[in-house]
Amino acid sequence: MAIKRKVEEDDIEPKAKSLRSSEPRNNDAISPPSQPQPPLTARPSSSVASRSSHSSSSVIALTNREKRQYKYKESMAILNYQLYCIAKRALASPISRTGSYTHLVDTYQQQAAYLKRLYCKTYGDVAVFGIGDCGQLGCGQGIDESYSPRVVVGLRGMEVGALALGGLHTLVLTERGEVYSFGCNDEGALGGIVVDEGFQPCKVEGFVPSAFGPNGAGLSSRDVVTFEERERQVGLANIVQIVAGETTSLALSEDGDVYMWGSYRDKEGRAFRHLPPPDDDRVPTGRKDMSQLSPDESVDMYMPPRGAQDWPLHLCLDKKAKDISAGDGWGAAILEDETIVTWGVGTSGEMAREVPVLDKKTPMKVVISEFLTPKPPTWNGLSGKKKVAAISCGAYHLLAIVRECGMNVYGSGLNQYGQLGLGDNVNRNKLTKIEFFEGRSIVKCEGGAHFSCFVNNTGKELYCCGRGDYGQLGISLEQPESGSFETTPIRVPLVYTIQKSKVTDPKGNCIIESDIVEEDQPEIEQISCGSSHVLVLTKDGDVYSWGFAEFGACGQGKRDTDIMRPKKMEAKLANAQGAKYKIKFVCGGGQHSAMVVSTDSRESGGES
Fold first, then answer.
1. In 3-99, which residue ranges form alpha helices assigned H by DSSP?
2. H or E element, residue 165
3. How far apart are CA 319 and CA 336, in angstroms?
């Protein structure tokens, strides 16, 4: 079934169409906060070969979940010792009256939360809802839509800990560190699956690290082994994070390696990908049979950097990564030193650096060096390295939370709907400080297609800006006019009764901030933006959703209208034995959504 409702094509430069929802969105869990000084450092092995040489140690012999538990305890011990050292030095001097101690505590809490999210997930089953015409619900060919959450039978008992949803595909991360995928595969986004559409979950294989990555030794080392030997020794990587773009999938391993499969599509619909590492000798043209090309095709069209990446490719960064995010045709990562890099085919400023024109005349060597090679962004009016605590890629814009004197928020990229929150609708090609958030202690940021959401450190203050004509800002009483937007962030309470007598414009902002009852606001545990809808998971386990609801992506049952204000999801789920599910993780995609659900008896985080 073709998707009938799509966002207008004048949102961005004209883009060649394929079988895609026009408003993609990746999302994964809350982006990691920064670390106290001295920085917390991971301890992976120093080379690809050395990973296997330590196989006799007790840590490597453990299961992936046990290794993550060990890593969590080790990292928390280091973090606690760092806090002790900093406090000891501070208390040896006269007590300062500045806010430095408050900032230190906030930083510690954020880093502890990051470590828990990374290593101590709660595992369970998967429930999906929304459009599924390309298999993105994973429920088989007979189910192409669901207006309320339904459990994916093929994933029952798989102990899923995280999800990532793209335009028309879904990624699943299990407690074993394995990745499964389903949905549209016409650009390789499912990874290693030979069909165009995968209606049932299939495992993604081929996560083989290169000697040229941050954990590698390079060709100068005598430890370098052949690809086949590395594949045999390493097997499947212990993946700890997954994210999805429109036709792109990214994964982060426990060792800080980043893997990519799928493709980055430019405004003309051309597919690009990274060059394989020099020691990856898999067929560069992928799974397509070169003997079956049509007369108007050539082998060059499928040689990197063109074409789709059919299996996970190690993206060789200079340093280990600690967090990743993906936009429409680009990606970003926070590195171990808390700097960031961006890459892809972004041409609207989303990569926060100057790039040349990208068209049919652009030489491939320029595409490789200026677009596909990960590089640091530029900062407006700032010099030196910035300590980045969290990132989120919207479809065509980048959001970053930076640890300075407190937490500040920066944005770059497409801004025609004010999604950067800068008070105007002018695009930016440098990360620019969002002055509105000065002193508001923002710790979570999420980008949708053309809107953004932010949450402060109490978890009770949510702000939104950008496009709102589908209700994705959560501030209106009635459906806003087409293309309406807010350029300055607006407070969005989850619990709020609009007094119609005070409303002058029911299609505009109907929230009076002074009328918000603060004690009624639930604490936000996680927030996820789909293309044009929002899902919020509270500490109490409730889910609120709002925005584009025509195909059920909000999980509120069949509707003819979009949802203008945050609405609690009332759907009740139970397993085959009748035990009620609790919601542990939410994720929004193009026009579908998914949740990790668990019964009390199956809660199995890192410490439980």
1. 48-53, 58-61, 64-91
2. strand 160-165
3. 7
Per-residue pLDDT tens for 196-223?
Answer: 678 999 999 999 999 888 877 665 555 5
Question: For the residues 16-36, what does the mean pLDDT come to?
Answer: 37
4 domain-assigned: no
Residue 399 lies in a domain: no
Q: Is 529 helix (H, G, I), strand (E, B) or coil?
A: strand
User: What integer pLDDT is reported at residue 558 of this predicted model?
Assistant: 87
Torsion 61-190-195-371 (CA) sign: negative
CA distance 190 to 247: 9
Q: What does the alpha-carbon distance between residue 118 and residue 450 come to, in Å, rounded to a whole number?
A: 28
Contact 237, 158 (CB under 8 A): no
Q: How far apart are CA 126 and CA 196, in angstroms?
A: 23
Could you give the number of structural domains in the chain? 1
CA distance to 80, 101, 263, 268, 518, per residue, from 166 (Å) = 37, 40, 12, 19, 34
Amino acid type, 359: D
> What's the pLDDT at 79?
87
Closest CA to 147 of 597, 559, 541, 589: 559
Whose tokens are 């980043």? That residue is 258
CB distance 525 to 515 below 8 Å: no
451 assigned to some structural domain: no
- d(C-alpha 45, C-alpha 184), whole Å: 36
**Helix 64-91 vs helix 100-119: crossing angle, to nearest 10:** 170
CA distance 51 to 233: 9
- Picking from 597, 555, 590, the residue whose alpha carbon sits closest to that of residue 26 is 590
Which comes out higher in pLDDT, residue 531 or 599? 531
Share of residues in the chain with pLDDT > 90 (%): 65
How many angstroms separate the CA atoms of 415 and 421, rounded?
9
Backbone dihedral angles phi then psi of residue 528, each to the nearest 5 degrees: -140, 130
Q: Give the DSSP letter of residue 263.
A: -
The one-letter amino acid at 60: I
Cα–Cα distances (Å) from 403 to 52, 320, 324, in that order, read 37, 20, 18
In a domain, 469, yes or no: no
Q: Which residue has the tokens 């690290």?
A: 209
Range of the domain at 63: 48-116
Q: What is the CA radius of gyration of the chain?
A: 23
**Tokens coding 192:** 């290693």
Distance between CA 513 and CA 331 in Å, rounded?
Answer: 35
The kind and range of the H/E element at 110 are helix 100-119
Q: How far is Cα of residue 373 from the mean position of the Cα atoms in its chain?
A: 20
| Cα(470)–Cα(7) distance, integer angstroms | 10
Task: Please give the biggest Cα pair distance in the chain.
Answer: 79
Strands (E), 227-364: 239-244, 248-253, 258-262, 264-265, 271-272, 309-315, 321-326, 330-335, 340-344
Region of poorest pLDDT, from 271-280, 378-387, 428-437 = 378-387
pTM for this model (two decimals):
0.84
